[in-house]
NAD(P)-dependent oxidoreductase
Amino acid sequence: SDKFKGKTVLVTAAGQGIGKATALAFARAGATVHATDINENALSALANEPGISTRRLDVLDTASVTQAAAEIGTVDVLFNCAGFVHSGSILEMKDEDLDFAVDLNVRSMVRTIRAVLPGMIAKGGGGAIINMASVASSIKGVPNRFAYSVTKAAVIGLTKSVAADYIGQGIRCMAICPGTVESPSLEERMRSQGDYETARAAFISRQPMGRLGTPEEIADLAVYLAGATYTTGQAYVIDGGWVN
Ligand code: NAD
């Protein structure tokens, strides 16, 4: 497909999981993709993919984000995928975990949006910003995910605010809210619970479809939203029927 031919897409956390699948999906749709991640090793698997160039980018570092945006030039689609899952309730959480979650899950998006939005505006509209939230947010109370849910709810608020402020300049901003998706970090969370098979069965049992989502299924939604020119300001649930 060449639907995104001539379009420049910037993806954060593209080294694995949903970010990687989305970088590949945009490239298959004809886009020029900048796949970025803090982990250069992980990115190397994408280095020879047609349409994809890779670059190390730590989204906690404002100067690096600004520099990357300047070097890449005008971005048509920004996919903010970077995020980290802390486990624990409010009483179990360390304050530094909340600080880190706000920095990586929320402020990273403030940094990248500030860096690319002026270019999108200068282009005269047509830009799309897609932010990774979760159903564990303002959408659903999920046990054992306090810091995570606080920050993913903030992503939805951030998304709606940007959408409202820039709709007049032709920029759209949307959030994606997955349920549970197969990914390297999910594998780690399941292994760290001690009994891997029990942890996996518990994750699957809360999915009415009887299975976890795949990164490719989330990537499809991201590509769809990038081209869905009559929607903005919405949070899209993609969770195998968990929230219903
Ligand atoms: P993952 O957690 O397995 O991978 C995360 C990637 O982020 C890694 O490649 C890592 O190197 C990168 N990263 C970490 N810190 C970074 C930084 N400072 N700068 C740049 N990159 C950094 O991938 P995933 O599970 O697909 O999750 C991706 C996003 O989707 C996250 O925002 C996550 O919260 C969200 N999400 C995931 C699920 C799920 O079940 N997997 C569900 C809902 C939402």
Q: What stands out?
A: Residues 95-122 form the longest helix (28 residues). Residues 12-13, 15-19, 37-39, 42, 57-60, 81-83, 85, 104, 132, 134, 178, 180-181, 183-186, 215 surround nicotinamide-adenine-dinucleotide (CB under 6 Å).
